Amino acid sequence: MDFIETLKSRASKDKKRIVLPEGEEERNLKAADQVLAEDFAKIILIGNPTTIAENAKKWNLSNIGKATIIDPKNNPDKAKYATILYDLRKNKGMTEEKASEMAEDPLYLGCLMIKAGDADGEVSGAIHATGDVLRPAFQIIKTKQGMSCVSGAFIMFLKDKNYGENGVMVFADCAVMPTPSAQELAEIAVATGNTTKVLCGFEPRIAMLSFSTKGSAKNEVVDKVIEATKLAQAKAPELKIDGELQADAALVESVGQLKAPGSQIAGKANVLVFPNLEVGNIAYKLVQRLSGAEAIGPILQGIAAPINDLSRGCSVSDIVKMVAITANQAIG
C-alpha cells in the first residue's frame, strides 16, 4: 500500500469534515466526487448550490449529492460566523457590517466554520493566491499554542532507498518563511518532526542543516542554526534533533561518523530543516528534478487547525491527495 493509500485508509476510520471553499471549480468538484466515492472524508463545498448541481451533472459526478453544500450568499448561519469574526477582529478595526460582508467570502467562511467547530480542515488555492488562502487562516485560526510561525514541509519520495527512511524524507521549510529567526527555525524543526510522525508514521531524525558541521565554520548564520538546534532540543526533548550539520554529514553515514562522531542523527537523518526558505525551496526542487523524486506538498504546519494551500496549476489528483493529508492532520 503506497503512502497516499495508507493515509486514505487511516482517514476512512475517522472521517473528518474537510471544507473546499472553491466548491464550484471543476478540479475541486471532481476531487470531491472522488473523495466521496472512496469514502475517506466528509466533504463540505462552499458555493452556489444550483451552480454546483449543474456542474456536477455536466461532468457526470454522481457522488456530489453526498457533500454538504454551503451557499455563502444565503447561509442560515451567517450571523453566527459574522459574530465570531467581529469578536476576533474588533480590536483590529473590524466592524459588524464588515464582518457580515466577509462572512460571505468563501475563504473566510471556510476558516470560520473550522473556528466554530463545524469543519475539521480546509483545502484551497486552486484559483486563489497563497496569500489569499493564508490571510483568513492567520486572522481566524491563528497558530498552534507554542508556535509563532507557519511553515511548509514537503514529503520527498526518493528512488534511492539508502537515504532517509527507506527513501522517504521530509524537507522544511520550503514554502513560507523567508528568513526565520533562531526561535522560528526551532519551531519549524519541532513542527516538522510532528508532521513526520503523523503523516509518515516513522520516528523523525532531524538534521538542522548549515554549511558548517559542529563548528567547522564560524559565521553569524551558522550561529543561528546552532542556537535554533539548542532551542528545538529544549522545546521538544522527545524528538531526535542535531545540528549544525552539512548535508553530506546528515545523509551519508561514513561522512557523518567522520564529521560528527557520536551524533545519533549524522548519516541517518530522515528530516532536513533548512536555514532559510531560499535554501529549502531550491533544495527540494533540485532533488525533485535531478533525482526524479516525487515531492508532495507544501504541507502547512504550525496552524491551530489543518489548512492546506494548493498550487493554481494543481490537478484533481493533487487535491485528492491534499484532502487525505489534511484529514490525517485533523486526526493527529
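the 2nd protein, sequnce then structure:
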Amino acid sequence: MIKLRNLEKFYESGAGRTYVLRQINVEVAEGEFVTIMGPSGAGKTTLMSILGMLDGSWNGEYWLYDNPVHELKTKHRNELHKRYIGFVFQQYHLLDNLTVYENLDIPLSYRNVKRSERAAIVADSLDRFHIVGKKDLYPSQLSGGQQQLVAVARAIIADPKLILADEPTGNLHTTQGREIMGLFKRLNAEGTTIIQVTHSEANAAYGDRIIDLLDGWVVEKEE
C-alpha cells in the first residue's frame, strides 16, 4: 500500500543542511497496524505529515497504492488525501468557526456523499463517541479531551483506507484512550490500515510492528 524509497527531509540554513529525516526506506502493507516510536525530535511527526501529504517539500519516492506521490502536483496529492486518508492530529486541527456537527460533516462533503446520507452518518458518529450533546458547540467550548474525541471521529467518519494518528490518545483519560485504541483495533480487523505515532508502550501493543526513529533515521532492531 505504501512504499518509501530514500525519503529525506532537510532545512537549509547558514550553517548548511539540517536533516530531519534520512534515507527512509519503509513499506506498509494494506491492512497493517504500524506504530512509529522514538524520542522527541526523531522526525516522527514530520514523517506523518509527509505520509498524509500535508508536507510536499522532501526528496525521495513515496508510493501510495500505484500513485507516485513524489511526482504529483499539490492538487492531485490533495485528491489522494481526501480519497484515502483520515488524519488524527496531535493538536486536533478542528475548524474553529464550525460546530462539532459541521466539523464531522466536512470529510463527507469532500467525498460527495449526499446530504441526507451525511446527516445519518454524522448522527451515528456523534452517538458512537458519546458527543451528541456537543454537536452545536464550537471547538473553543470543548475540553482538550472532547476536542480529541471529535478529531478522531472526524478522521474515521468517511471510512478511509488509511488512518494516520499522531499521539491519538495524548489528551484523553485512560478509559477514553483504551476505547479509542480498541476502536482502531476493530477498524484494523475490518481492513483499515493504521499508522500511529505514540510514546505509549501500551498503545504500541495494539499494532503489528514498531518502526523506531532516532535522529531522523530508522533504527534497525537486532534479532
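The radius of gyration is 18 Å. Residues 2-219 form a domain with the Rossmann fold fold (CATH 3.40.50.300).
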